[in-house]
Amino acid sequence: MDTVRYLQLDVFAEHAGGGNPLGVVLGAAGWNDATMQRFARWTGLVETTFLLPPTQPDASYRVRIFTPQREIAFAGHPTIGSAHAALETGFVANHSERIVQECGAGLLPIHVAHDAQGRLLSVQAPRARALEPEVLHAKLVRAILDRTPLGALPPGFVEGGRRWWIAEFAEETTLRQWQPDHAAIARLAKASDSLGLCVFARCNQSDYEVAVRAFPAGVGIAEDPASGAANGLIAAWIAAGEPDGPLARGYRVSQGREIGHDARIGIRIEADGTVWVGGRTHTVVDGRAFWR
């Protein structure tokens, strides 16, 4: 029986309980793929990660990311949460403004900042690119969004670490009240080999400028409380569509209220289109796990 350190975190939240849960395992370097997958299935969380020594000289640590069904190359909240765990536990020295994560998507720089509320981490999202949708898939999207007032940017199909369909709603109220056809989103995700659909709306709130909802039916999730990868792709879509617009250099995101969460995500967009996705993480559980 192996004894490992196990942390359960709340990612992209100003206060514990508002963000997206994540399990992180340390000390499992000797586990094989099947053991990691079995543990991730047991946690029942959207993602569980395993912190490992790096294999690349420029990396600070290596992470493997598992859903209950399979291993994935990249996801936003597991990246931010894993970086938090690496710093919190001393797996990585906690004295640098920049660390580098090695994962299936390559080497990803992570910026480390501190303020009065604590540590704030931002990951450089994988470069996004727009995909040309097939005619049938575009028809499926139009049917899902039928009679929904849309915003200034057209719907799109974007890839960058993950594949998502993106649509802008005309108003925040419409976004908050929308009751999507989850079965139709699942059909779209399967047909287009994507996670599903994420929708956003511009807002005139004092503490956020964009509201987001994400429906990753492609991995069996009805709605995600906080989606780092999806928000990175939305940011790239906005920056490409409105390079001189008010959101082209960054903004603050609210996500998850419709399912009882209150995630907060910060977006920074550099002049060359590089997107940084950031937020806070809270350690909720820190203990030992016993596993065969």
Task: Give short descriptive properties of this protein.
292 residues; alpha+beta; Diaminopimelate Epimerase, Chain A, domain 1; 17-stranded mixed β-sheet; globular
Please characterize this protein's 3D structure.
- The protein has six helices and 17 strands.
- The protein is an alpha+beta fold and 292 residues long.
- It folds into two domains: 2-124 and 279-291, Diaminopimelate Epimerase, Chain A, domain 1, CATH 3.10.310; 129-273, Diaminopimelate Epimerase, Chain A, domain 1 (Roll).
- A hairpin with an 8-residue loop joins strand 1 and strand 2 (20-26).
- The protein is globular and about 55 Å long.
CATH architecture of the largest domain: Roll
Could you tell me the number of beta strands? 17
C-alpha Rg (nearest Å): 18 Å
CATH-assigned homologous superfamily of the largest domain:
Diaminopimelate Epimerase, Chain A, domain 1
Strand-residue fraction? 35-45%
Structural class: alpha+beta
- By CATH, the topology of the largest domain is Diaminopimelate Epimerase, Chain A, domain 1
Distance between the termini: 5 Å
User: For this structure, what is the CATH class of the largest domain?
Assistant: Alpha Beta
H-E string: EEHEEEHEEEEHEEHHEEHEEEE
Backbone shape? globular
Q: Supply the number of helical segments.
A: 6
